[in-house]
Each structure stands twice: as structure tokens, then as C-alpha cells.
Specification:
Elements (H helix, E strand, L loop, with lengths): L1 H5 L5 E3 L4 E7 L5 E6 L2 H15 L18
Antiparallel strand pairs: 1-2, 2-3
């Protein structure tokens, strides 16, 4: 989110991919396309995977990078 803000990029949510995305170009023309999971999206993906991967899915600290995902 900081990179998006610092580069004047608009964060978009792509429903088909179920992920947030933004893009920006540096002053030298280098293009960056950034796809990321925010707290809500990560929660939704984990929730969808639980029936499949419950015995093997480690979740300790997962999502702690995003304040929206922490109670």
C-alpha cells in the first residue's frame, strides 16, 4: 500500500483473480505490476482451502503484516 501511495497508483480489486493489484512506472520507464493479498483476501483464500489442506496448513502469524487482518 505504501508503494501504491508513494507512486500515485490506484489499487484495484480483480474479481476474477480475487486479488488486489496496482501498477506504476519509475522515472526511467521501468514498469512494475504488483499483485498482493490483503487481510480480507488472504482470509478468503485460507477459508476456501481449509477443507482441502487442514491437516498440513501452517497459519502461525499469517496475515500479521496487514493490520486489517489482526483482531
Amino acid at each position: 500500500m505504501t508503494a501504491a501511495r508513494d507512486n500515485g497508483a490506484t489499487v484495484l480489486f480483480r474479481p476474477r483473480q480475487q486479488q488486489s493489484h496496482f501498477g506504476y512506472a519509475e522515472s526511467d520507464g521501468t514498469r512494475h505490476d504488483v499483485w498482493f493479498l490483503d487481510g480480507v483476501t488472504a482470509f478468503n483464500q485460507i477459508h476456501a482451502a481449509i477443507p482441502i489442506a487442514r491437516p498440513a496448513m501452517p497459519c502461525g502469524g499469517l496475515g500479521s503484516e496487514d493490520p486489517a487482518s489482526c483482531p
